[in-house]
Amino acid sequence: MPELVELHHQNLHGVRVVAVSLDLVFPQTVKTPEALRAFLVEHDFALPVAAFDGDLDALATRYDLEGALPETLVIGRDGTVVGRHQGGGDRAKFRELIDAARKR
Question: Which pTM was predicted?
Answer without folding.
Answer: 0.72
